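#dry-run=false #mode=assembly
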Amino acid sequence: MADYQAPLRDMRFVLNEVFEVDQLWASIPRLAEAVDVDTADAILEEAGKIAAGSLAPLNREADEAGCQWQDGEVSTPEGFKEVYQLLAEGGWMGLGGNPEYGGMGMPKMLVAQFEEMMQAACMAFGLSPMLNAGACVSLDYHASEALKQKYLPNMYAGTWAGAMDLTEPHAGTDLGIIRTKAEPNDDGSYNVTGTKIFITWGEHDMAENIIHLVLAKLPDAPAGPKGISLFLVPKILVNDDGSLGERNAVTCGSIEKKMGIKASATCVMNFDGAKGWLVGELNKGLACMFTMMNYERVGVGIQGLGAAEASYQSAVAYAKERLQSRSPAGKVQPEKAADPIIVHPDVRRMLMIQRAYNEAGRAFSTYAARWLDISKYSDDDAQRTKAENMVALLTPVVKAFITDKALESAIHGQQVFGGHGYIREWGQEQLVRDIRITQIYEGTNGIQAMDLMGRKTVMNGGEFVREYIAEIEAFIAENKSTAAAEFAMALSDQLANLQQVTDAVIAKATAGNKHAIGAAAVDYLHLFGFVSYAYMWAKMAAVAGAKLDGPDADFYSAKLTTARFFYQRLLPQTRALSEQILAGGDSMMALADHQF
Amino acid sequence: MADYQAPLRDMRFVLNEVFEVDQLWASIPRLAEAVDVDTADAILEEAGKIAAGSLAPLNREADEAGCQWQDGEVSTPEGFKEVYQLLAEGGWMGLGGNPEYGGMGMPKMLVAQFEEMMQAACMAFGLSPMLNAGACVSLDYHASEALKQKYLPNMYAGTWAGAMDLTEPHAGTDLGIIRTKAEPNDDGSYNVTGTKIFITWGEHDMAENIIHLVLAKLPDAPAGPKGISLFLVPKILVNDDGSLGERNAVTCGSIEKKMGIKASATCVMNFDGAKGWLVGELNKGLACMFTMMNYERVGVGIQGLGAAEASYQSAVAYAKERLQSRSPAGKVQPEKAADPIIVHPDVRRMLMIQRAYNEAGRAFSTYAARWLDISKYSDDDAQRTKAENMVALLTPVVKAFITDKALESAIHGQQVFGGHGYIREWGQEQLVRDIRITQIYEGTNGIQAMDLMGRKTVMNGGEFVREYIAEIEAFIAENKSTAAAEFAMALSDQLANLQQVTDAVIAKATAGNKHAIGAAAVDYLHLFGFVSYAYMWAKMAAVAGAKLDGPDADFYSAKLTTARFFYQRLLPQTRALSEQILAGGDSMMALADHQF
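#status=ok
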């Protein structure tokens, strides 16, 4: 397997050239204070060194070794503790954190690149900083000042690690039916009792303490989702002076055997009257949780992207080295027994698909991060509202479309290796196994699609979609004489089609067809994702096309070529998706249960 | 995980109702002698019992245990030896074998169903009877009478097991560059020396002897594929009286760690001057090997199908049991905390996709087996030639399209389980890991696509494709008033489109575009596969539609509904594929190697 290298050139292209972060950051005072392009560049450089030099070399062995559970303790694979320590000491655990409590205050656009590197180097490990950051966001937004002061500094410092505890054996998607109970104590704390499953890094040996954010219900809480509250439950109780006190009644009962991300611990967590503190308001736990979830969902999209990038890098290296058969156009390396397989059109097809999806995914998640930053940091109310709408609309697409395409990308990367791709030592099969979870957790991709189609589209009469389309139309109008002009007509057609399909589903759903949203959802999310990637490729082409005569011409011409490949060989899938959506759900719903 | 049950009702539907095997078998003397519908039925019944009762229960544990290598010996997971013995004693290892040498002489259409059951129950194990059958076919067609008499009876009896040894570390797809040498001895035997890798069941403890079919080159052989010969190399030498003699110089150096089919041994085989005997003519080894490979390729398609069927059965059972959220149309089981997830449109979508692909795959592989039977058993020269053309055309599609759709099906099955699908104990993730190899071995799916597009289509000017289309057009003309009429117009459009795309690629390739075949191949194979599945669904609908008022109405109406689902929600993908193919390969080939 080729050594992973952080794709710094591509990251800088997206940040500095496509999205011109210098202008954005300078225009928002709180960001102008925290970061500039030079600082960002130094951060990228340093993160790339840690990812490639310290973390990536652990990935293969860690998958074989896995985490080990014994008597409630979880020990991590060799090297994990050291890299965790390295990240903690470098301040990386609080990279996007609130500076008031010790965070570094970096914008999500930059943090996204750091996350991609961590996930590319080792997804099982990368879950740890990702979950910690998500837990911190939730605390920062919703916890009391006292809780924030007590917990955030150590979590940003990585001394303590965050975990989120939502799922129960009978309740995953449907959190309304959870059974974990929180009973109030006189001192304002709660006793939390129940069993949570699938708790990633719920227990481990990398940090001094683990801070669980736990969904539970008060004894007299209303039934369903409106009776859920969020509690902070530390593994080890924290004294008033900040020192560690007694062990709390939180234990890890076992860890799961999984398809992939084997080096991460997926824990069954038992709370036996564990002491916890309310985060946010009573019975508003789902809202607090969703602050964290939306953050994580963008993170999960980036996970898929990172692993797909690692897959691409290995596949390219293998395709250039592996000699097998001759080019259909005649011998390319006549002195050798065969040509490198990169000469074969079908191998190129697979590599080009990886490029087309991965690079669009990087641009798209960075674009979503841009809206996250504006919604968080802008002083302009109207701009913030617009940004919030876009975050709401794009989050499920970032999570689900990037991960669906990441799996496809990694399957192609594995296929490039032929039989060697199926053997563990080459690492390609691990990437497929690892990526597969990203389509499932933090809300399955089907749930993301329901969110996009239902809450984010039908429920507001398609307003957010129209806003998004208007932005892309404005882009097209502005690029009549750039290299994006080549793609303008196709993109314009795609927008018209997206609008038409959106209207058709809204009409059906509002006319009382109860299954209209569910029957359309996943295909609609893919349609939306393809259009979004087409927008990203047009944006990248516009920038690259202006620099074809400059010093880095090979880099820019590759962007234009990959844009063409995307438009010609992948984007036509929107035709099929549209037709499928418009066909409706009758054939999907017609069978009686007993006919299955 | 639900217990696997052989889908006997569906198999009988395909055999007896869709393809009316009674008429076919009665019309071909050698088949009429060997089998009738009642015999076939009894065989299906008994095979189903072994698959569900004896083999399937081993599958999960065997995956965890894997095969163990020590000092050249491979021990198999618990229970494998016993099931192997059960199959051997029941004559199953020679089910399709030549009766002159002790085989049971059953047609491939029936054997295909047996194979599906074995693969569904445990793919890692199922490779053993499959490879044995393939090796026997190769010997039966190409070996000398003496070799056949000496080896086939024990191989059909399962006392000895067959293996095929083709790949070398530097030579997979490109067998022309193999280095294994065969030096002639005075007694007519050869000394075979070299290293083979990825040899499935190359060594194990289930049979007394292992008969390797090994590709090697004579010292003075022509370079490239025209210098390859095939040799029979037994693990233990066989005396003239048929008893076992000395150990041959064949050893298993190690076994691979793999993504899936972990309970099968994938061996590195070392031949150190091992004694072997020529099979077929010198330097015609590839032809002998392809007899076996074509047989195996249909078998690999059926592997994918079998595992996808197992995935579907589990997913349906889980979807009916798992309670989570409420139907969008209102509570279905108000007395419970939530509704079973099968009420949700997106869960149904996934299950319907599994049905649509799996059932079409079963019909399609049986249809290909029908042509294999006619090509092998018919006395009519013209019919045999037609059948050989169809076998040549359809084999790569059966191998690659069924396995590609099987992976998709199993991924959907896993997705139905949410987080539980990622945990090993439920078995769904194993099916995904296992199926993944079917897209890679016996010629990657990309190689299958090159075979279909190049050798089977462009090289004969599209003759086979026209023959196939003509058959489907005749079917449409005959079904103007059956339930297939509903699909006639769509199917007709698909045929016209397939013809047009075929002509366009042929025109481009014959005009000298060296990359035209490779650039179109995989998308073309998928286009061809979708049209073939549409044909199968129309055939199934024609039969089912006539029986909607009979005793098994639920069964037949489900067929019609699933056909509609396929036409409305999956078949539109041909639009995208066609557009992609017609866009050509320029953007695919434009990057210089260093730009990757």
